[in-house]
Specification:
alpha+beta; binds fe (ii) ion; 14 strands; binds 2-oxoglutaric acid; 7 helices; Jelly Rolls; 308 residues; 10-stranded antiparallel β-sheet; globular
Amino acid sequence: MFKDSFKYYKSRNPPPDLKDVVDFSIPDLNKVRIITTQCVENQQGDKLGLKPIKEWRVYELIDVPGLIFIENPFTEIGQQYWILKCLKDYSKKPNKLNLDIHNVLNDNESWWDITFGNPEKGKNLLSKLRWTTLGYHHNWDTKKYSEDLKTQMPLEIVKLMDILADAIGFQGFKAEAAIINYYRMNSTLAGHTDHSEINIDAPLFSISFGQTAIFLIGGLTQEEPAVAMYLRSGDIVVMSEGSRLRYHGVPKILPTIIKPWETNNASESNTSISKNVDHWKKAKMYISEARINMNIRQVLKSGQMTLY
Ligand SMILES: O=C(O)CCC(=O)C(=O)O
Ligand SMILES: [Fe+2]
């Protein structure tokens, strides 16, 4: 049962045995299948912080057809770029934040500015950011998207998704909604399915940064057992086809030793991405005790212009 696996991996006392957690960095070919990428190098990829596509390692989980895993395809600078985007830009109005209902931020205040610029008010705010929504906003109560609640999808996310989708054979994917999830070391995400999108034939992309997650993917009902896997910084999970509507969740965040965002010489790098060293220092501090997940979906069927 999904709940049993969740409880097992969440437990602190006793701590879980991690021997069955699928580790794509040492792929077991009894459990995973190698997928070949459609290697049309895209010049934009470099600007979006991606390694050349020919260097990517892509797998499918044999027991969960359609569950595709791309092992961190980001460069170190790329990791910094996306972490900063999630912390500084995507957590701003007009996007929606979990903090909105608490009225802790005034309209002209941003989470980033207050957290790192106002020691008194910022102290409590750092750990309170839990999610933000972009594009079509998911309404957590009705579990529906609405045409009225819609903001512009950031162009860099749209472009990134075009490249990722093309590389693994999902041409035509349109990034129309995103949830950015922010996890502290003791955060969890309960088992759920993502079924609110009209177009459930389109894959869902889930990109992780920062500390490592144990991610569980179960079956179409809660009764089926779950497979556990590590999601490390930069790793991408694609829930497509038979895996798209399966139960999944995050029972545990583990501190990571491998920090692909942390370079010795990134601050000397000449790309515009790491230009703001001061901002990066703050983001680096945040990410040393946090995980960020960018969860990106297509909502509409191709050719459909609005929800109605
Ligand atoms: O954080 C994750 O890896 C999963 C997030 C997720 O499932 C969701 O946002 O629907
Ligand atoms: Fe989900």
